Amino acid sequence: FCAGAGGKTRARAAAMRSTGQVFAIDVAVARLARLRPRLARSGATNVQPLAIAHERDERLARLRERADVVLVDAPCSGLGTLRRHPELKWRLREADLQALGRQQRAILAAAARLVKPGGTLVYATCSLLAEENDAVAHDFSLAHPGFRPQPAAEALARAQVRWTPTAEDDPALRLSPERDETDGFFAMRWRRET
């Protein structure tokens, strides 16, 4: 979900070695159009771009409960990239954050419908703000009791990635410029149990 020009989509397709199917879903037709030549150059043959009008688009019905994994690369304030884009702090207004929060919650709920039982849902932003990260994840967990939070540390350990959580009982992945010498990122995983 929110595939854009497909950087994460191409990485996923490469990791899958062109097996299975990857649906690159976005409302921005122009961004998906930029994905096509990139897919051709990468040699990925298992990606299907899917342009939708909104998160309730009827074209998503055929994918309902079919996905092993859904990644929501959510639209966000981008405040995790402040060291590269300091001008962002001057553009963001409180009303923008409220609108983003509504959009993030709606997208996450729509993406959850695509996850099959036993599958995984991942929500990610390049923001450091609790309003876009913890609040959205908390609200989703309350509204979707069939999805259980999964500790990021477990998934990263399986992938042989060394990372230390910010708190022992925190299931989220949190990266910050000060601590991790990278942009600020947030990711939360859930496993669909029912």
Reading the helices and strands in chain order gives HEHEEHHEHEHEHE
Summarize the main sheet: 5 strands, mixed
Query: What proportion strand?
Result: 15-25%
Mean pLDDT: 94
* N- and C-termini, Cα separation: 21 Å
| Global geometry | globular
Uncertain spans:
none
The structure class reads alpha/beta
Helix fraction, binned, reads 25-40%
Instruction: Determine Rg (CA atoms, Å).
Output: 17 Å
State the helix count.
Answer: 7
Number of strands: 7
Q: Any overview of this molecule?
A:
The protein is α/β, with parallel strands linked by helices and 194 residues long. It is 35% helix and 22% strand. It has seven helices and seven strands. Strands 3, 4, 5, 6 and 7 form a five-stranded mixed β-sheet that branches. Strands 1-2 form a two-stranded parallel ribbon.
